[in-house]
Amino acid sequence: MNIKISIAAFSLIVFVSAKSFSHGRNALNGAGDIAAIRPQCKSDRHGNKHVPCPSPDELDVSVWPCVKMADLCNMQRDCPNGEDEHYLYCFYHKFRAQEINKLRQSVDQIKG
């Protein structure tokens, strides 16, 4: 029974996230037929991992900004539409970070 509830809750979160991030626009913010490919962001020379923003720049859809992982959910808008500070995105990001930390701690305990 708990699995069914978990799947239903996850499906609802994904649906609400998709509706919230689109703000009534298509994925390219009304860019029409322009095909945009979301980039694969690289780490900088200091080893900071970067991730692409959920949408491209509003003025130039060929520009798809990358944001440092450390700058996600830091109360500063780094993405063009501020999606990096959206409450659902931050909820997911913080939950994911907590789970990864738990896994690291478990691996460290196993290693001894």
Automatic annotation (TrEMBL):
GO molecular function, one term: transmembrane receptor protein tyrosine kinase activator activity
Key words of the record: Signal
Signal peptide: 1-18
Domain of life assignment: Eukaryota
Gene Ontology terms: cellular component: terminal bouton
One of the GO biological process terms: positive regulation of MAPK cascade
Record-linked PANTHER family: GH16255P
Protein name in the entry: Uncharacterized protein
Source organism: Caenorhabditis japonica
